[in-house]
Amino acid sequence: MHLVILPLLLPLLTAVTLLFWGRPSPGRRVLAAVSAAGQLAVAGVLLWRTYTGGPLVLPVGNWSAAFGIVLVADLLAAVMVGLSSFTALAAVLYGFAEFRPAVEHPLRLTLIQFLVAGINLAFLTGDLFNLFVAFEVMLIASYALFHIPVVGLEREQGVRGDQHHLVRRSEERRVGEECRCRWWTCH
After folding, report:
1. HEC string for 128-177
2. Which of 65, 107, 135, 138 is most exposed, with the fewest beta carbons within 10 Å of its own?
3. DSSP codes joined into one string, 65-104
């Protein structure tokens, strides 16, 4: 059994299934929650296998490391996959409490699954090229999640969801500049 590839396949297959499911519904939410719980279970098994048996290596397609994709799961990678799976499950469940299915954006759960797939690939990759690919997958999914409109927030406050983050970041930058200038003039 190729246990090393399951933390990548499970979120990718879930993301594609959610993408073709269509509109937000309770069934979509159940699928996303079961998948996130399954990812946490797979991460637990991966952690146990690496703890008891050492690192797991999977050359995808049986290509050598110089020409193909190599996935490596050592103890640190297994712990990090477990932490990311736990965080993803918490984020999915928190999103259920935050939004009703009628208000939820149709791409939110799909993008979370793509983000988890990129994070897991970053932890399990065996070479720098695939690490770069993992960062691209993570960044695309995170930027898309960042720009999903928050419908309830738009109605209540009249601003887009990403504008709150931009205002907060500019305030943090201003405060940081002030602190740095004061420190520089005092020393």
Report:
1. HHHHHHHHHHHHHHHHHHHCCCCHHHHHHHCCCHHHHHHHHHHHHHHHHH
2. 65
3. TTTS-EEEE-HHHHHHHHHHHHHHHHHHHHHHHH--TTTS
Nearest-5° Cα angle at 69, 67 to 73: 135
Q: Map residue 59 onto helix, strand or coil.
A: strand
Residue partners of 186: CB distance under 8 A and separation at least 6? none
pTM assigned to the model: 0.78
Nearest-10 Cα torsion for 134, 139, 141, 147: 180
The answer to whether the beta carbons of residues 88 and 8 sit under 8 Å apart is: no
Q: Tell me which H or E stretch contains 115.
A: helix 108-124
Q: In angstroms, rounded to a whole number, what is the distance separating the alpha carbons of residues 16 and 14?
A: 5
Chain centroid to CA 108? 11
Q: How far apart are CA 73 and CA 59, in angstroms?
A: 12
Query: How far is residue 6's CA from residue 45's CA, in Å, rounded to a whole number?
Result: 11
Average pLDDT over residues 12-34: 90
Report the distance separating Cα 46 and Cα 180, nearest Å: 45
For 77-108, the pLDDT digits (tens) are: 999 999 999 999 999 999 888 777 777 788 88
